[in-house]
Structure formats: C-alpha cells, structure tokens
Amino acid sequence: MTLQEIIEKDRKYYMNTFGDRVPVCFTHGKGLSLWDLDGNEYHDFLAGIAVSALGHSHPAVVNAICEQAKKFIHCSSLYYIESQAKLAELIVENSSADKVFFANSGAEANEGAIKLARLYFKKKGCPNKIEIITLEKSFHGRTLATIAATGQDKYQKPYSPLTPKFLKVPINDLNAMEEAICENTCAVMIEPIQGESGVNPTTYEYIKGLRQLCDKYGILLIFDEVQCGLGRTGKLFGYQHYGVEPDIFTLAKALGGGFPIGALCAKDHVAKAFEPGDHGSTFGGNPLACSTAYAVLSTIINDKLCENAEETGNYFFEKIRSVKQNHPVISEVRGKGLMIGIEFSRPIAKEVNKKCFENKYLLGSVGDSIIRLLPPLITTKADMDGVIEMLDNVLSKFD
Ligand SMILES: Cc1ncc(COP(=O)(O)O)c(C=O)c1O
Question: Which atom of ligand 1 is nearest to the CA of 146?
C-alpha cells in the first residue's frame, strides 16, 4: 500500500484520537534507524516515547520473542510460569522491591499501585485512608483512575466527574505537600522526573523530604517509573539518584522493549495486602511478555546500558551548551541521562519538530515550547553528534 492509501484507510476505520499524525509509515528498523515505505532512513531519538530501549530489532529481543513463540505464547497465571518467576527475581534482585506483579501497560501498573495502597490501609483497619496526593503537570495514564491521578487538565476535562480522592500539589514544594496530607491520605504518587509535561525533574531535597514526610505521617511513597525507569536517566531506576527507596514503584514502556508489559513492584509488607483474588490480569505476566522483558532487562544490565545512558547523556548536555549559546531561542535544557527536554522562549516547538522530521530525525514536541529526546539506551556519542549538528542547523532558521 502507498502512504496515501494507508492514511485513507486509517481515517475511515481507526478512531481519531491522534489527530493528524506525522505523515510517515515505517516498515522496519535496526538500532536507532527506522525506514519508511520509500526506503528513507530516519534517526529515532524518541524510541516510541521511551519504549525501544535497545533500539529496533535488537537480536536479544527478536530471539526471545521467536524462541518463546515457537514454544507457546500464553497460558493463564492459574499455572506457574518460569519466565514470570525469573523476571520477577531479576527485578527484585536489582531494585528496592521484594515482590512484583505484571500488568500490560503503565496505566495498568499504576492502577495496581493505587489499588494496593488503598487495600494496604483497609486491611490495617483504616478504610478511610484512600486519598492519594499527586503532582501538578504529572502524567500517570489514561484509565479513569490514572487520569484522576494525572495533574493535567487536558486529559481530565473530557471525563469529569473524575474518580474521586486524588489531590494535586506543585512539584518540588514540600510545604504544599505537607499541608495537603491529612488523616485520609494513603499515599503520595510521583514521577521522579516528569516525562509527559516536558521533562521536569524533582530536586534531591524534595525526594529526600518526601520520604521523610511519608515516614512521619505513616503513608506510602509510590514512584511512577514508567518513563524514567529502566536505565533512561543513567541509573536502573530514577529513585536511585536520590538515595531513597519507595514503598511501591511501577514500570512499563522500556520493560518489554516494545512488547507490552508493565510491572507493579513493592516492599514485602505492602505487597502482602494483595491476597488471592484481590488483583489479577488475563494477559499480565504471560510467557511471551516475560521472556521478552527478561531479555530486555538482562541486556540493559549486562551491556551496562545505564552507564551508557549516563555517559552519552552527559556528552549531549555538554555539547548542547554551545548550541544554546548560538541560539538564544533555547531558554533551558533539562533532564538526566537520555531523558532530555529543550525549552524555547517562543512557541516554536511544533515547527522545530517538523523541521527535525524533514531532516529525518524523530524527536517529540510537548505543548508549544518544548521538544524532547528519549533515544534508545544504546545511543552512541557519534549518534549524539549527528542530532546536535542537525539541531544547530534547524535552529538557525528560528534565530
Ligand atoms: C510516567 C508515566 N506513567 C504512566 C504512563 C502510562 O503508560 P501506558 O501508556 O503504558 O499506559 C506513561 C505514558 O506515557 C508515563 O509516561
């Protein structure tokens, strides 16, 4: 089919939740490269929005999928599943969690976290402790509860009245957080680095202080690591930058390297609140998802991709400094590792992103004035040189 034929079919049959998409259809990829229907090569610095951690068609992922699919794809979690147990062990051995439950997406993992936090207090005899405090500008998913947890009007407005008992406070403001905590609060849920609102990091003092506040008031600390987890920021988990441990954290996106899987991870005393029948999933934790995620996570660890993300990210931040000097239209560059946001002083993000696309670079725009880069964890310094040079050229048209 031609691109035009695909677009027409999409418009006729697919629900229009994405508006006018970028006019391209990719047929295959390798590493950081994607090729379109006409054989044009693109450099993927978005990685399916922080998903394709190992790049495209990584042999470890392809092999895991093919080998497992040849054996069988699915059986219910009514039965024991070897790859499920092994993946849970790999996450636990490399994190602060003691127990894991697998879901199919980030939103679903977060739903699990919300349910677990509420149930934890219910089973402790505190049924009124159901309120969760989240941050303004946060993003936690598209299900009804995770939309309510999200701190952005645009996702919430169409679906009001929202699932109740989610409160919002500004990021990096410990006083506001402490004022919002009340006897009905069961948890604080935050992204250590906010992704969808344009890469907004929390400060070291804030996360340290949050842990102390949660301990002081006996409430749970939940980290949504769906976007910032699994090596993206230069450490396996975002929370490791802050020297604190959450009671619950969630993963998805990079975990399957493109294959859908999410994870709800918790300390033992919290995880115990889930007893037989309290939670479940038909597809969550199935053999294909877990074998694939096991291959992804062990590759991230064994190939030292967190270290690579840190080093290549630092290299980018160093290089972009001179680009910023050349182009005062850049007001701020922020992020950690390979989670990078560039903010402009004018609303040019969409136009800049379009020009990057015309130069065969895939980046993302957030709102009117931010573009972001979330390249695969295998990105090299030479790849970074390419995107820096391209940005320098593109931005000269906006000076
Ligand atoms: C921090 C965060 N949490 C949750 C989600 C939702 O994940 P999913 O789209 O897999 O449901 C996202 C997706 O962008 C995210 O960035």
Answer: 4
